[in-house]
């Protein structure tokens, strides 16, 4: 497996375009006659585009995705449904497709009517510029940004067991309201693998569970989120190699979201090992990465491992505080701060000095070994900074 | 029922004292030969004093409580257990009691050995100054403060159905790491009611479930928390009137904790009505009060009701977005921002202007009516400010 240029357009047969005006952006991705699958927000309040796309993808087929940023088209009633359908219809008409061949996604503020004249203009503009080029993928990634500070895209290539080279490209956006089971997070993935809708759904779910669902920015869960994959079948049959590449792509995209969490100044990866079950490993990793106290300690470069232990303790995971081992790691340093329940980083120890050093790093890896079983999981997050508070105190006004 | 002066010392037969030095404080509360009960943190990592007090209260009897601030005596191994037992022993010896007649509590930083010389001196100092006076109760409330900005105490008097006047006094401390199932929260309650340990436990649990367990500051759950009640039996028999007074006392103390949440500039009360079950009402109220996005919106005086709806949506509570009604209320103003699923506070509406006005208030009440059933619950919290980040980024260093 290797990384390749071009994002979603690294995949043969995919065209794309993005257009922006003021607070609004529109992206269109076309991959005709694709097998398709999607994963949606777990929030009981769902935006109109979520309802529309669930319906569109039900037959396991899609030819295009249209997405807008700046307005979530959520809590907008029947009018919101009509606006979302209209978005799909404009794209479908131009491509001579049915409305149900087009997925719709929205991100932005909740509860305001979509400004359809602007959105319509942007869709039309995007439709006129559809291309298969790295720049087109970049434009898509940029047009779906909200409080994101950088566009997020990636493409990988791997060789399938049948000898065919397959590519997977993805774009995504964060960056607040990111939580397990997906925050305000959109990701669109293209590939030329051959797969049935069921195979694609199973592969996507497996990848999302260990990537997008393990990212926490603030613990809120959005009303709008979705990951959509379209597979146009120009390459070989789906297999374990494809899964490996899809897992990698989704994980790298998820890490970009964590790294670009609202107000984030530092990235943290938390690995929990030695758990009694996969569920325990995931709960514990997510609890640490979600803890406001851990997040502020990371921001303040404070090696307050007590907060890490406390978060594992309330995560619901089985643990024995006399067995737990905790280490901190940066690119340059690694230190065991608790070793089988014995505190190493006590006041005056060299371990504490190293721990303080590691905490100054902008990339911090926390490893918690519960020493109880065979399961492990990783979660991704960021610090909680003054800037997070500023961004979210000022968002809608 | 009326409020009375004197905190825990409003109760006949109770003596108390507090002593402080530098970062450390010690409180002692004596209520000899009391029936007693306690509720503890749900964290799997528990501090030594939690283990000691669980054991002490097992026979349903206590005569005293000793508590220290500045150090949590958590993750301190066998030495920590010995230190905690020693705290109990000093008090027990002076009062000619058994060690198991004394409950022990600690709050402060995790993972550092208790500085026993300082703690011993402070316990001795407190033991020499035991008094039944309002000032003694105030000293107790002050000595257990950590990042609290004001001491928290209250006493109430009510008339039991048997005609006896009964009093209940309480002190507590917050103020970060406060979450459902109790954060770094200690509360000590005295009363002269007559009750068996079982009756007391049931009354305490009922009161805690609707008060301390409904306060959220940052969603973290501490390793140290406990609520202890001692009843010396000098007044009449426990009954519904007592429960009512205990509920009120605990709720008022819980509100003080929310009001004094780390970095809090505003207090919020969230009431969820019309839920299908009590569990749904509680989950939904806690989700709103815990949401970082709602908390920052409150800080920024931004009437972003979409974040409220989204939090209810991911709380797990049954809801239908077309039925929900949301109102905001300050001391001066009240406004329906969503009415049976219809947004009232849209751009340009007078409702939005009023909503903005309400959000400027320092006391904000959010009411969410799910319009589905008969159950309701209230949760208490505060905003998420720059100051919360500052306090917690700098705590241990």
From TrEMBL, chains A, B:
Which catalytic reaction applies to this protein?
Answer: N(2)-acetyl-L-ornithine + L-glutamate = N-acetyl-L-glutamate + L-ornithine
- Is Translocase given among the entry's keywords? no
Binding positions for substrate?
A: 146, 173, 184, 262, 392, 397
Residues annotated as the enzyme's active site: 184 (nucleophile)
- Cite the InterPro entries for this sequence: Arg_biosynth_ArgJ, ArgJ-like_dom_sf, ArgJ_beta_C
> Site positions for Involved in the stabilization of negative charge on the oxyanion by the formation of the oxyanion hole, renumbered to this chain?
107-108
The EC number of this protein is 2.3.1.35
- GO annotations under biological process? L-arginine biosynthetic process; ornithine biosynthetic process
Task: Name the protein family.
Answer: Belongs to the ArgJ family.
Which purpose does this protein serve, as stated in its record? Catalyzes the transfer of the acetyl group from N(2)-acetylornithine to glutamate, forming N-acetylglutamate and L-ornithine.
- Output the NCBIfam families linked to this UniProt entry: ArgJ, PRK05388.1
Protein's name in the database: Glutamate N-acetyltransferase
State the species of origin.
Methanobacterium congolense
């Amino acid at each position: 497996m290797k990384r390749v240029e071009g994002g979603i357009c690294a995949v043969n047969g995919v065209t794309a375009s993005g257009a922006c005006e003021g607070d609004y952006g529109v992206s269109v991705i076309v991959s005709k006659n694709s097998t398709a699958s999607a994963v949606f927000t777990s929030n009981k309040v769902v935006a109109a585009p979520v309802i529309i796309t669930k319906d569109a993808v039900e037959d396991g087929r899609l030819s295009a995705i249209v997405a807008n940023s700046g307005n979530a088209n959520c809590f907008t009633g029947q009018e919101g449904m009509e606006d979302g359908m209209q978005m799909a219809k404009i794209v479908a008409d131009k491509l001579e497709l049915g409305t149900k061949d087009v997925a719709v996604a929205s991100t932005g503020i909740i509860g305001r009517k979509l400004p359809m004249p602007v959105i319509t203009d942007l869709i039309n503009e995007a439709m006129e510029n559809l291309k298969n080029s790295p720049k087109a993928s970049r434009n898509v990634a940029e047009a779906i940004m909200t409080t994101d500070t950088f566009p997020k895209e990636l493409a990988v290539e791997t060789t399938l067991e049948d000898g065919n080279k397959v590519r997977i490209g993805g774009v995504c956006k964060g960056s607040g309201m990111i939580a397990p089971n997906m925050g305000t997070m959109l990701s669109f993935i293209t590939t030329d693998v051959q797969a049935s809708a069921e195979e694609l759904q199973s592969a996507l779910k497996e990848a999302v569970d260990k990537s997008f669902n393990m990212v926490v920015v603030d613990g809120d869960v959005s009303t709008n989120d979705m990951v959509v994959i379209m597979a146009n079948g120009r390459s070989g049959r789906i297999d374990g190699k494809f899964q490996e590449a899809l897992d990698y792509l989704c994980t790298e995209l998820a890490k970009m979201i964590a790294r670009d969490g609202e107000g984030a100044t530092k990235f943290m990866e938390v690995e929990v090992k030695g758990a009694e079950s996969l569920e325990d490993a995931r709960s514990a990793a997510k609890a640490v990465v979600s803890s406001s106290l851990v997040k502020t300690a990371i921001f303040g470069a404070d090696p307050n491992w007590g907060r890490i232990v406390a978060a594992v303790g309330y995560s619901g995971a089985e643990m024995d505080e006399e067995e737990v081992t905790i280490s901190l790691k940066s690119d340059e340093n690694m230190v065991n701060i608790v070793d089988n329940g014995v505190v190493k980083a006590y006041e005056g120890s060299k371990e504490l000095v190293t721990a303080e050093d590691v905490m100054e790093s902008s990339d911090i890896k926390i490893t918690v070994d519960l020493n109880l079983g065979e399961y492990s999981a990783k979660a991704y997050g960021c610090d909680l900074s003054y800037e997070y508070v500023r961004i979210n105190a000022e968002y809608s006004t």
